[in-house]
Amino acid sequence: MTSVSSSILTALGAGSGIDTSSLVSSLVSAAREPKQNAITSRQSLNSARISALASASSSLDTFADALNSLLAGTGYSGTPASNDTSIVAVSALPGGTPTGLPAQIEVQQLASARTLVSAVNANQDASQGAAATVGVGELSLKVGSGNAVSIKIDATNNSYTGLAAAINNAGAGVTATVVTDSQGTRLMLKGPTGAANDFSLTTVSSTTDATTGADLSRFAWSSAGPVSGSTMSSAGQPKDAIILLDGVEQHYAANTIDTAIPNLRIDLNKAAPGTSVTLATTEPTTSMRDLMVEFVDAYNTLMKALNTATATGTDASTAGVLNGEASIRDMKRQLSQMVSAQLTATGPYKTLNDLGVSTNRDGTLSLDTAALDKVMAADPKAITQMLNPSVKTATNIGLAGLMDKVRDNSQKDGGPLAASQARYKALASNLSDQLDKLDTQMADYQTQLTKVYSVMENRLSAFKATQSYLTQQVAMWTKSND
Hints:
alpha+beta; 4 domains; 5-stranded antiparallel beta sheet; 4-stranded antiparallel beta sheet; 17 strands
């Protein structure tokens, strides 16, 4: 690019005319560059801060989400167990932690249901099977002390299939099945388990089919015993399950028990009088130890990144991009308070400090694994419930809940992080406006300079024309005098 001085010297010394375009361009660039560099430098720093804040917030999200996902797995909670699942199986119920374990249980008797089966249909063509008629009329079905329901059979459902469907659709708790095998077709009925859940099927009305002899009263049954004219026979008696739980006899109508031990489901699989089964809770001691090691490592990775971003440095070139940023200082402060924050209001251990976690001078954490192993051995259940409670409450939030609390406080609307992000976003818009304004100012300046130098060039051209004329006249005068 031609300099200002060279343009002037060329114009005055060589008489070749002024390069006003280059001259104006040089002057405009000289005026623009320092202002533009100052703005773009601020833009670069502002963009870096916006990116760094987003990265810090995203890292906090990743940490909290990963911890929640990890602790949601079955390997990080106390698991109820039975030492003989062929007799008794157990599982945790939602809403709390099983209490009263370990316990001894003996299954003396399984719960059973009344099971009825009709005689084989021998009066009709066996090829008809489930479609064979049963007779028309009405039966009344009653289970235990419940209300009786009506079972009506007419021309539209006069078959074994129709009768079974009518009983099932009554919703009384009795299941009807049509069995067709090499012996013929039969109706099988099964009621709910439990001694109090016997059922009866009484005849309200019945009309015997003159052709097939089908008579609905054949399916009647009384809980007191067989009914005259009925072909139904009992294949199973309704009984309660009987267990001894820690020596106390208990009776239940079903083989699935939810109330014997709080928050524990007990499934009775086999009667085994005289055999005691142990129910206990298996604590995830190894998983919890690994969890603490991984938590400290992940925490330190996040804290080191924040330390780098906020480093003071010896000068601007070595300082962190978020040096002096209040929102990140607040985030680090909240993270540092996690080790002393109370995770539970009960039990011998309440904070991470109690598990051997301590804070270093740079804000990172250290884990004393020997201390952790000692408390794990002393009370593994308490550690599990402290770090990953079965039911979270305001005073028993667990490790994931504490991490969520830090995240929510850091990212809340109107908080320091949100305020900083809004401020840098506004600055980015302002700097962009400043560049647009500078472009307008420089365009106006260029137009002004172009006009000035255009006038100057015209005047200089006139001066040169006069000079040329005078030079010619002097030459002529000199020649004539010779």
